[in-house]
Amino acid sequence: MVLQNASGTITFPVIEECDNNTMLPGIREWQIPLREGESAYLQFEETFISCSDGLLLIKTSKTKSICGLDKPASYFVEETVVVSMLRITKNCSLAKIYFVYFQFDFHLTMSSHHVQPGKSVQFVARFIGEESLKKLLNCSIDYHADNFQVGTSLSTLTFTTQRSFQYPGRYFVHAKCDFLKGSLKAPLMNLYVECGLSPSTLQISHKDLSITFLKSTDLVFRHRYCFPISYSLLLDDVIMVENRTEQNLDEMKFLLKAFKKVNFNLNSSMQQLLGPGLHNVMLMLQNNVSSVVHPTTVTLNEEIKDFEVTVKEYVGFHPHYFIINATVSQGAPISLLVQIKSIESNLTHFNASLFCPQDCRSMVVESKLSQPGMYIVETTAKNNISQSSSWALIEALPQIYNVYISSLKPIPSYSINYVYAFVRGDIGDYMMTIYLQGRPENHSFTISKLEYDHKDLPSLPFDAKSYKLIKVERVLYHIGMQQVTGFIRNSKQSFPFVGWVDVLETSSCLENLRIRDGNYQGGFENPLKVFDYLTFSVDFKFTCKNMSEVRYKWLVFPVATDMDMATYTYEVEFEKESFEPELIIRADTLSPGLYVIKVKVTSENVTSDVLEGKLKDYTLIEITKKKLYFVILGGNVLQTDNNNMTLLRFESSIDHNKYHGHISYNWFCSIKQEELPTRTVIGKIQRKDSCFDWHTLWVTSGHVMEISMNELRQSEHYYIRLIISGPHYDATYADQEVVVQARQAPIVNLKCWSNCGKYFSPHLSIILHLECDDCLRRKWTLSPNPGHQLPLCDDQEFCKLNASLLIPSSNVTGTGYNIHGENSSVTIFLNALSSHGGGSCIILPSMGSAYTTKFNVTCAGYIEGKYQLMYKFFLQEKGHRYLLQYGFDPVLYDIILPPGRSYNDVTIVVEICTLDQSCVEENLFVTVVTKDDVNDDVINELDAALLSSNLQRIAQFVLVLSSSNKLNQSKRKEIISKMAEYPMLLLEPVKQVADVISHVTNNPKLLEETQLQDVQDILDRVESFVPFSASRYDDVNFIVRSCMTTTSQLMRLVRFYPFKNEENLRMNRLGKLLMASLTPGEEAISFETKSVEGRLLKLNNHVTNPFDANTSFVQLSNLQSHITDDVINIEPPPTDGL
C-alpha cells in the first residue's frame, strides 16, 4: 500500500489478527513515495523476525534484508522507499514489526543566481515536516568553502541569511541539516558572481585600427580587467567573431583593476569579404549581469593607383553646378581634396573635400564658380598608405544645359502653329538655329532670369520653371512625327539639340487629355508616392464623331531628383498597345526613385483610317521602399499556463502566399523586451537574456514559429519579435508579450476578422473573436479608460467595435473564465491611422433636373500626410453605394443625376482616404427634380466613354440612365460587351463593373441569350476576385450586393428557368461572401419576395476564414410561403456596427 500521510505509525500484524488467529502467511508492503528534494526517516521499534518464519525487506535503489539477530533501527532515505514483510508462520510473536516514519521537504532558494561583486544575495532554506523533529536538526548553509550556521523558526524550520561576495566566480551553494544518522540536503545550486560591465568601469580603448588591405593582423582592444566576459565582434553586419573569456579569475588583476588586452585576428579571407575601405565595427562585451556595446571603425587601406580627374572645358555659373569626375583603378578609402584657383590672380575661388569610405573607383564633386575667366582645378587623393594628385584647366562662361522641343499638342498640317523650345542656361545672350522640315531659322534671345512661370501650358515631363520658352511660328506640311534639330551658340561654344513634333492631317479630335493625378497646374508639383500600387486613369473629350477605336500607350522613364532635366533617353514601355485607359504601377516593379509616367492616346476615323486624334500627358511618381504593416496574430499580450506540454504558435498577419519569396521572416525571443534587436544580425549573437539560457535571441525563420514550453528557460514573461524585410521593403517589426501563469487557467486566443493590421481605419468597424474551448463566460474591457467594460460584447465570443468608441491608441482585452473561476486574458493594441480632416466638399449647383443638369463635386482643404489622398465619389440609393469616380482628383466633373426619391434629394458620398485606407466621409445632398426626356448629348457622351473604354465615365452615365428609357436593347448589349472585356485586377474597377451590370440588367427582358451568358461570365469573374480583397470588407460587401441584385433580376426571367439551380447556388455563395464583416448571430438582411419572407443570418461555426468555400455561413430563418414562385430578390438595407 502507498502511504499518503507525511508521518505515521505502522504495526504488523495488528492485535486483532493475532487474537483471532486469522493471520495468514504472505507478503505485505508499505511504500513511501518521495519527490525531488524530499526525504524520509524510518524508526523501527519492537521489531523481531525469525529467519525461519519471515523476512523484512527495505527497498530503495538497493535492497536490504533483515531477520534474526540483525535487527533494524533507523533509516534516513532521499528516494522512494518500500518496506516489505514476508511471513511464513502464523505465529505473531515470531514475525512482527513496528516502525514510525516521517517525510520532510527541504529546499533552498536564492534572490538571484547572478550577482555583481559586493552585492548581497538572500538565501532562504526551508524545512517542512514533523514539528517535534526540529530539536534533532543541526543545519547550515555552505558557500563554496565557507560555512555559516543559522537558527530556526517556530512553524516551519526556515534559515534566512544575506551574504555578499567580493570576488567574481562560480560558487557552489547548498543547505543541509544533520539529522541523527543522516543529513537533509537541498539540491546543489550555483551562484555566479560577475562584474558589472559599463563604459566607465571598462574604459575600453584600442590601438589604431588602420591596416593595409589583405595583410593579416590582429584588432587589439584594451579595457579594465573584469571577470567573466564573453566577447563578440561584428564587422559591417557581415562577419561575426566570438572570443570567450578565460576560465579562471586572476585575483591580482581584479584587485589592481589592471588593463587586459583582447585580440581578434582579421585574416586576409575576412578582409577580402569586406573589401578595402572604412568598415563599422561593433564590439559587444557581456556576461550574465550586464553588457556593453563599443562601436568603432576599422580602415583597410588599399594603395591608390591611376588617379585621374576629368572636367568639361567650359563650365557655367552659380546657381548652376558643374561636375568634377575623379577616378582610380584601385584604392580605398580616399580623402579627396579639390581646389579651384584663378590663373590670372592665383586666388582660390572654390574649396571642397570628399571622403569616400568604400568603392572609390568613381567620385563626383559638385563645383561652382561665380565669375568668368580661366581656372586651374587641383585635386589630391590620399589615404594612410598612399597619395596622388591631378589637375585640369577650365574656362567659366555662360552655358546652355538643356533644350526640350515640343509642339505641346499635335499640329494640324497646312496651318500656322507654334513649335516650342524650352531652354535652360546661364544668364546671357545666345543665338539659336533651328531646322524645321529642312529649313533653317535663326533666333537670337537673352536669358535674363533663372525662373519662369509656365502655369498656363499643358503638362510637361519635367519641371519647366527654370526654362526660358522660345516660340517658333511655322506652317508644317509633312504628316507624322517630324524631327527638329538645331544648335544654340555663344562666342565660344555650340550646344546641339534634337526633338520631335507631331503633325496630323487635320485638327485633333481629342481635347483636354488628363491623367487623373490631382494636378491641375500643367507642371509637376509633389510626386505621387507609390506605397504598394497606384492606379492611373485618363480622361479627355471628343470633338468629332465616327471614331473607330481609341488606343493607349503607357511609358515610364527615370528622372533626376531636381526634375529639371528634360530628357527621357531611358524611356520604357509598359505595354506595346493597350486598349485600357488605366495603368497599374506596383512598387516592386521599379527601383526606388523618381519616374515620369507618360500616356499617349490616339484615335482613328471609322471610314478612312486617318489618324484624327493624338494627345499625351505626364505625371510624376516616386517609388519608395515600402513598409509592411503587420501584427503577430493572437493579440499583443497573451497569457498561457506553465504546462511543459504546451506548444506556443506564433504567426504573422501577412498573407504569406502573396509575398512568398519576396520577403524574409526572422523570429526572436527574449526574457527582457529591451533586449530585443532591431537588426537581424544583432539577434544572432549569443545573449544572456535569450529565452533559451545563453543562446542567440534569434529562433527561426519562416512565417510561423512554434516553441514548446519545455524548451524555454523559466520565466514569467517572454517577449517575441518578428522582423520582416525584403528587397523592396524597409525592415519592420512587431512584438508580442507572453505571460506565464502558475495556475491551470483556460487557454484563450484572440483573432481579428475585420479592420485588422498594425493600424485600424477609423471609419470601419473592428470585429474581434475570443476563442476558448474551456470558457464558461467572457468579458471584454476597453482601456485606457480603466475597467471600462463593453457590455454589448460581454459573454459573447465576438465583439464588434465602432470606431467612435476608440481613441487614437486603445487597448481591448478579452478575458475568458472557466467553470472554476480561473481566467486568462489576451490584449490587443489598436492604433488609429493618422487623421487628415479639416477639409470640406461641396456640390454645385444645389438644384437641377434629372439627366440633363451637369453637377460638379469639389473637395478642398484636406490635409495630406506622408502619402497623397485618394478621393472616391459614390451615388447612394436605398442604403447602397455605387462608385462614380476614384483617384487622386478632388473634383468630380460634369455628372448627371437621377431624380431624387424623398423630397427629390439625391445623396452623394465622398470618401477621402489615404493609401493605407484611413478614410473620412462627407455626405452631400442635392435636389434633383424629375425630367422625362434625356438629352441626346448625354447619349453621345456615353458613346464616347464606351469607345474610349473609360470605365469611370461609363459608370457615371449607366448608373443614372438605367432608370430612364434611353438605354435600349442595343445600348445595353454594347455596355455588357464592354464590361466583359474589362480585366478584374483591382477592387475599385471591379466594383464599378459590378455596379454597371446590376443597373444594365434592371430590365432583363431586353437582354438576349448571348448577353445573359456574358453577364454570368462577369459574375463568375467577380466571385473569383472577391476573396483576394478580403481585407476591404465594406467595399467587398457592396460588390457582392450588386452581384446579388444582378442575379435576382436574371432569375425573374421565365426563359432563365434552366439556370435556376445554378443561380441559387450562386446566391448561396454570394451570401457567404456578404457575411464577411458581420458577427455570428447578428441580423444581416431582412428580405421579402413573391414566395418567401425571412432573414439571412450568420452562424457561429468557429471558422475564422470568412471565404472558406467548404463552410456554410448563412441560414434562412422565419420563412413564410406566399405563392409557388421561388425567385428570391434581395434588396439589402445598410448594416450598422454595434
Please describe what this structure looks like:
Strands 51, 52, 54, 57, 59, 60, 63, 64, 66 and 67 form a ten-stranded mixed beta sheet that branches. Strands 1, 3, 4, 7, 9, 11 and 14 form a seven-stranded antiparallel beta sheet that branches. Helix 7 (about 935-945) runs antiparallel to helix 8, helix 9 runs antiparallel to helix 10 (about 985-1000) and helix 11 runs antiparallel to helix 12. With about 1150 residues, the chain is mainly beta. The chain starts with 6 loop residues before the first strand and ends in a 21-residue tail after the last strand. The protein contains 13 helices and 78 strands. Helices cover about 10% and strands about 45% of the residues. InterPro entries: PKD/REJ-like. It is found in: Membrane. This is PKD/REJ-like domain-containing protein. Keywords: Membrane, Repeat, Transmembrane, Transmembrane helix.
Please name the defining characteristics of this protein.
single chain, 1138 residues, mainly beta, 7-stranded antiparallel β-sheet, 13 helices, 46% strand
